[in-house]
Design goal:
This protein has 13 helices and 13 strands. It has about 375 residues and is α/β, with parallel strands linked by helices. The strands form 3 sheets. A 7-stranded mixed beta sheet has the order 3-9-8-7-6-4-5, with helices on both faces. The longest helix has 21 residues.
């Protein structure tokens, strides 16, 4: 529950973005006003700015279990994903012509790969079953010696499915493939333990505004032995992979938010909140669950049958309750994730995504359940 000057807000759209923490916001302001130098400048203010940059990089590297020099800051998850996908293909295209991905990737991966397909790359999109699940065998059947990129997300942003990332490195090795393994970790980072060396990924993407850091900052992990080509040119920053003056205030705020991550404390609390939400929502006639039972507890996808998502969202908004109909990046377009699962169009058109953060409490769920019940009973049903 978030309190404002005039009203109470029940914000349950944390997979779209989170409220910036006070510590992160204070750090952003401090760097804007005090350590405002350019990290590339060869004077005292530049040196102090460089120290802030190095501290944020070290915090992120520690959280991900990697080396500091394997972290490259970007403007967010979308740029990091695009850099990973296009940069890999530019580097390895002479060695093969196949990309293996899933049919439920975030649009910043999904659409980037669509573009490459239009340019002649063969794309294999592995589909989930009706419960949103994948098996390692599905990937083993399609990763071959021609595969140059395997891009699979850690956690789906709409339904919360956790994918079998740790098995993909073994599959790639057995296939005699030159493929790089890229993982979009945006919805997983800060919620479940992520040790990238153990996962065996070559490239991984994270974003600041999903973990109470500012919008406009993210990072790409590139394993030291991995090689990709840059998409931009014109500076020495980030070892030329992402040139241009770093957005230091945002990066410093990102680093501060990373330091606040406490998965052993937050995960059990979210799991309890998830159970409470499923109990409350499951008792409402007309509500069905689209997320699998073993989804990440931070995300619950439901359908209020017969009522369009947009209609219900506006009803909830009037009561100070904020959720979404799916990925915020889709801006209301039909969900390719639910379609890939084989969910009927009418049910998909009624889909709603509820997503938690450590700031949520049971009264947020109570308010949602009450308003959802009222909406189902009073709103005009779709014909």
């Amino acid at each position: 529950m978030l309190t404002g000057e005039d009203s109470v807000e029940h914000y349950l759209d944390n997979s779209a973005t989170t409220r910036v923490s006070k510590a992160a916001a204070d750090k952003v302001y401090e760097v804007m006003r005090e350590n405002y130098g350019n990290p590339s400048s060869l004077h005292t203010l530049g040196f102090r700015a460089e120290q802030e940059l190095n501290a944020a990089r070290a915090a992120l590297a520690k959280a991900l279990g990697v080396n500091d020099d394997e972290i490259y800051f970007t403007s967010g998850g979308t740029e990091a994903n695009n850099t990973a996908v296009f940069g890999t293909v530019k580097w390895l295209r002479r060695r093969g012509n196949r990309i293996v991905t899933t049919a439920i990737e975030h649009s910043s991966v999904y659409e980037a790969i669509n573009h490459l397909e239009e340019e002649g790359i063969e794309v294999i999109r592995v589909k989930p079953d009706e419960n949103g699940h994948f098996t390692a065998e599905q990937f083993a059947e399609v990763i071959d010696e021609k595969t140059i990129l395997v891009s699979v997300m850690a956690v789906n942003n709409e339904i919360g499915t956790i994918l079998p990332i740790e098995k993909l490195r073994i599959i790639i090795g057995k296939s005699s493939s030159p493929a790089m393994l890229h993982c979009d970790c945006v919805q997983a980072f800060g919620k479940i333990p992520l040790k990238l060396k153990k996962l065996g990924v070559d490239l991984a993407t994270v974003s600041g505004h999903k973990i109470h850091a500012p919008k406009g900052v993210g990072a790409l992990y590139v394993r030291k032995e991995a090689r990709i080509k840059p998409l931009h040119f014109g500076g020495e920053q980030e070892k030329k992979l992402r040139p241009g003056t770093e957005a230091l205030p945002l990066i410093a705020g990102f680093g501060e938010a990373v330091k606040e991550i406490d998965i052993p404390k937050s995960y059990p609390a979210i799991r309890q909140l998830n159970s409470y939400a499923k109990e409350k929502l499951g008792s409402i006639e007309g509500v069905v669950f689209n997320s699998p039972d073993d989804a990440l507890p931070y995300i619950i996808n439901i359908s209020a049958l017969g009522i369009r998502s947009e209609t219900m969202l506006h009803h909830l908004e009037k009561k100070g309750i904020y959720i979404s109909s799916g990925s915020a990046c889709a801006k209301g377009k039909p969900s390719h994730v639910l379609s890939a699962m084989g969910i009927a169009k009418d049910r998909a058109d009624s889909a709603l995504r509820i997503s938690f953060s450590a700031e949520n409490r049971r009264d947020d769920i109570d308010a949602l359940a009450d308003a959802l019940t009222e909406g189902i009973n009073t709103l005009v049903k779709r014909k």
